[in-house]
Structures are given as C-alpha cells and as structure tokens.
Amino acid sequence: MKGLKNGETSAYKIPDIFSDSEAAPLLCAGAIGYRSLRLTAIKDGQNLGLTGFGASAHLVLKMAKQKYPKSKVFVFARSEKEREFAKELGAVWVGDTEETTPEKLKCIIDTTPAWKPIVAALKNLESGGRLVINAIRKEEKDKEHLLKLDYPYHLWLEKEIKSVANVARKDVSEFLDLAAQIPIKPEFEEFALKEANQALVELKQRKIRGAKVLKCNNSDWI
Q: What residues are paired with 213 via a beta bridge?
C-alpha cells in the first residue's frame, strides 16, 4: 500500500472489544478459518462439515452460525472432549473422523495435519461438494491412506478439493470487523512463556479446548 513502510502493511488495528489474549487466536486461527469458510462458497441452508475441532474450527463454527443460520454444522473429531465442545457451540451432529454423516454435506473444511481425514471426508460430500484443506502441512506418517481413495466412491460426481495457501490482508481486516460485530470470543487457555513446553505436550495429547495462548511479559526476555 502506498505510503506504508517498515512492516506497517502487516499491522492491524485490534477492535477494543478484544483483550490481547483474545486477539491472538483471531489473528491466526480465526483469519485462516474465515478464508477457509469463504473458499467453501457455502450458501445459507447448505450443510457444512468441520474435520478436526481445535483453534480454527471452533471459530469457524461460531462464524457459520452467525453468517449462515439455516445451515447445519457437522463436526468430526477424534477426542470426545472436542466433540462435546462442538455440541456446546451448536453442532447438529458430532462423530469420529471416519464416521458417516446422516446427511450429505455441501462442503467440508479439514483442519488436521493428517491424510486419513481427507479420504474419510470425501465420502460425506454430496455431488458437486467441495473439500477445503486448511492446514499448514500434512504429515508423512499416514500418507498411505491416500491409496484407499476410490474414484467412484470418493471423487466422482464433480467433487472438488481446494487448498488454502495464504491469508490476505483483506481476510484479516474483514474477519476482525466481523468478529467484533458478532462478537466472536475465542475459547482459549493461557500459558506463561516458561510453560510453552507444557502447552505443546497438551496439543500433542489432544488436550485442547479452543486455542492455547502464550503470555509474554517483559521479564521473559531478560
């Protein structure tokens, strides 16, 4: 943008309604979730699926309930705690990653680092449905699940797979405005910087309810 320099194009005004800890998940998980939801091209009344239910997906569910009140949201998650959390936020159906939904879905957003949920999600799409992959990376350890793709069962009837590459400035600005209007308050657990390893272990163990935020004080850098 003309006239901006020294990284100012990467700075955003945080609405006063949010604390620093509330804003942290919004600027990462929230913005990528907003872009993912936009890329689904969903219309009000169409079914939406969410695979994985962590920092990004729980914010997408809140957005979807506000923007598309007639749409049903179906959540796939490995953890029973995550499934219960999704129910609390208004999911009409919850199940494990490989379960079959009672209704076909127009679009599904995948927020996991694994391949297995990709194959499982495709079977639940209706004809012409779209799977949006919202993930920084996909792990190698379960890549063999791609060999289980069955063309007529998983991909036929003009189903689509779309990835989310980057979040644009417009996504962040629009999402922060939307989050303030609704308002969307993220669920999060706060950790001191010295507790970062504990937070990472809990993520690995699927002890997640929303997002995890590291709180840094000046003394942490001395």
A: 190
